[in-house]
Specification:
This protein is α/β, with parallel strands linked by helices. It contains twelve helices and seven strands. It has helices at residues 2-27, 32-42, 55-58, 80-90, 119-129, 142-146, 148-159, 189-196, 202-224, 238-243, 246-262, 293-306; strands at 49-52, 70-72, 99-103, 228-233, 266-270, 282-284, 287-288. Helix 3 (55-58) links the parallel strand 1 and strand 2. This is SGNH/GDSL hydrolase family protein.
Length: 322
C-alpha cells in the first residue's frame, strides 16, 4: 500500500510539473490580447484616435488610411463589456486622445462576455490583459480554462510552426486577409446568420439593456474628457444582409440612433447594407478583408468622419432596408 501511494505521489508530481511546463509554454506564444495591450501602453503618449470593438473592426478599419496616430485595439470576440473596461482603464493615460471609433456588429447588442457565453474570453482577458471580471482562480490557468483550445494553440505554434497572431504594428489583423479566405465562405453565410441572430431566451433582453447602458456609460465618459465617440457599423455581404431579421436590424439602428441623439459628442455611421462593397472586399459574410476591403472602407470612413464640421451634425446611415 505504501509503495502504491508512493507511485501515486510520483505520478501526480510528474503531471503537475508537466502541467506547469505546458502552461509556461502557452504564455510564451504570441497572442492578440497581449499584443493589443502592448500597443496602447507603448504608444499612450501618441494616441489621438482609438479603434475598439470586436472582429468586425479588428480587420476592417486600417489605421494607416484613417488618420495620424490611430491605433486599432479591437479584438475578435471582444464585446461591449470588455470594450468599456479597456477604455475606462486607459483613457486617463491617453493625454492626446481625441476620437474613439467603436465598431458594432449585427449581434453585438445581444452578446456579452460572461460565463454563460464565453469562458475563453474571460480567461484570456484575465491572463493576458489583467482584466478580472470573475473571481474564480481557475481562470488564471489557461490549460484548465480553455481546455482543448490550449492544446490546439500549443500544437499550432510549437509543432506546426504557424502564426498565432497576425496583427501589424497599428493593430490591424491580417489573419483576415483575402488570401486567408475560406473557399466556402459564401456557402457559410447562412450558418453565420443563425449564430448571429438575437437569442429568444428571456436573458437576451436583459443583455440588450446592459449593453445599451455600457454604450451610454462610455459616451458619458468620453464627453467628460472632451472626446468624440463614433459608433460605426461596418458593411456586410449582400447575402448576409438579405438573411438578417429586419426586426433585429431595426432595433439595432433605433437603439444606436437614440444614443447618438442623446449625447452631443456621439455620432452613428452605419454602412451595414452599403452597396459599394462586393465579393472581393470580404473575408467572410460579415468581415471585410484586411488587405482589400479594409482599405476601401477606411477611406470612405475617413472621408465621412473628417469632412463633417461638427460632431452634432446628423449622422449618415447607409443601411436602411428598402
Amino acid at each position: 500500500m505504501k509503495k502504491f501511494l508512493t507511485y501515486i505521489c510520483l505520478f501526480s508530481s510528474l503531471l503537475l510539473v508537466l502541467g506547469i511546463g505546458f502552461e509556461v509554454m502557452l504564455r510564451r506564444i504570441p497572442n492578440s490580447y497581449k499584443f493589443k495591450q502592448e500597443i496602447i501602453e507603448k504608444n499612450s503618449d501618441k494616441v489621438k484616435n482609438l479603434i475598439i470593438g470586436s472582429s468586425v473592426t479588428n480587420c476592417s478599419i486600417n489605421p494607416v488610411y484613417l488618420a495620424d496616430s490611430t491605433y486599432n485595439i479591437s479584438l475578435s470576440g471582444q464585446w461591449l463589456r470588455y470594450n468599456r473596461i479597456l477604455l475606462e482603464r486607459y483613457i486617463g493615460q491617453l493625454p492626446h486622445l481625441q476620437n474613439v471609433i467603436w465598431g458594432i456588429s449585427y449581434q453585438t447588442l445581444w452578446i456579452d462576455d460572461c460565463i454563460s457565453q464565453d469562458k475563453i474570453s474571460i480567461a484570456n482577458h484575465k491572463i493576458y490583459m489583467g482584466i478580472e471580471t470573475d473571481k474564480d482562480p481557475l481562470y488564471n490557468i489557461e490549460l484548465i480554462a480553455t481546455g482543448s483550445i490550449s492544446f490546439r494553440k500549443w500544437s499550432k505554434y510549437y509543432l506546426l510552426h504557424k502564426k498565432t497572431m497576425a496583427c501589424d504594428s497599428l493593430g490591424l489583423d491580417h489573419g483576415f486577409d483575402s488570401t486567408e479566405r475560406s473557399h466556402a465562405w459564401l456557402q457559410d453565410i447562412p450558418r453565420l446568420i443563425k449564430g448571429h441572430s438575437a437569442s429568444q431566451e428571456p436573458t437576451a433582453e436583459q443583455t440588450f439593456r446592459d449593453n445599451i447602458r455600457r454604450l451610454n456609460d462610455v459616451a458619458g465618459l468620453c464627453r467628460s474628457k472632451g472626446i468624440n465617440l463614433y459608433l460605426v457599423i461596418p458593411p456586410v455581404h449582400k447575402l448576409y444582409y438579405e438573411l438578417t431579421y429586419p426586426a433585429q436590424v431595426a432595433q439595432m439602428h433605433t437603439a444606436l440612433e437614440e444614443i447618438a441623439a442623446k449625447w452631443d459628442n456621439v455620432r452613428l455611421y452605419s454602412y451595414f447594407n452599403d452597396n459599394r462593397f462586393g465579393d472581393d472586399d470580404f473575408h467572410s459574410g460579415n468581415h471585410l478583408s484586411a488587405d482589400i476591403g479594409a482599405i476601401k472602407f477606411t477611406q470612405i470612413l475617413q472621408h465621412d468622419i473628417w469632412n463633417n464640421d461638427s460632431v452634432q451634425t446628423k449622422s449618415p446611415v447607409h443601411s436602411q432596408r428598402p
